[in-house]
């Protein structure tokens, strides 16, 4: 156990040295590549304006999203009506999708409880 701890500390030290050495260059490169997205000067008023633009743009996209949801639900209803025509590969895909949704739900519950499996802090 102590050997693993020493190994972990060594790896962490190496990572820290790498970030200290290359972090500034990476930051400059990242900012240079994405300078078209940077608002100059970065004032509070401009940040508030951009925040409102994002919020109302998201609100404006709701009708399109609801239309897409309606189409998806109509497709599911159509498949449910014709469920006798479903083949094994399609059934497998639906089963895997349901299982994935359930697993994401379980993972979200665990994360929401602070990574505890019982729900209590011990």
Automatic annotation (TrEMBL):
Q: Which GO terms describe its cellular component?
A: mitochondrial membrane; proton-transporting ATP synthase complex
Q: What is its main location?
A: mitochondrion
- Source organism superkingdom: Eukaryota
Localisation: Mitochondrion membrane
Q: Which InterPro entries match?
A: ATP_synth_F0_gsu_mt (IPR006808)
Q: Which UniProt keywords apply?
A: ATP synthesis, CF(0), Hydrogen ion transport, Ion transport, Membrane, Mitochondrion, Transport
Q: PANTHER family per the record?
A: ATP SYNTHASE SUBUNIT
Its name, as the record gives it, is Uncharacterized protein
Q: Tell me the organism.
A: Aquilegia coerulea
């Amino acid at each position: 156990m102590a050997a693993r701890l020493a190994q972990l500390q060594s790896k962490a030290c190496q990572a820290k040295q790498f970030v200290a050495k290359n972090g500034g260059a990476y930051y400059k490169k990242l900012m240079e590549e994405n300078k078209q997205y940077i608002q100059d000067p970065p004032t509070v008023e401009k940040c508030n304006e951009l925040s409102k633009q994002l919020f109302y743009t998201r609100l404006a996209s709701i009708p399109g999203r609801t239309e897409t949801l309606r189409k998806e639900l109509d497709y599911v209803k159509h498949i449910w009506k014709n469920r006798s025509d479903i083949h094994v590969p399609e059934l497998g895909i639906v089963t895997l999708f349901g299982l994935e949704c359930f697993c994401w739900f379980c993972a979200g519950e665990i994360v929401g409880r602070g990574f505890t499996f019982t729900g209590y802090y011990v």
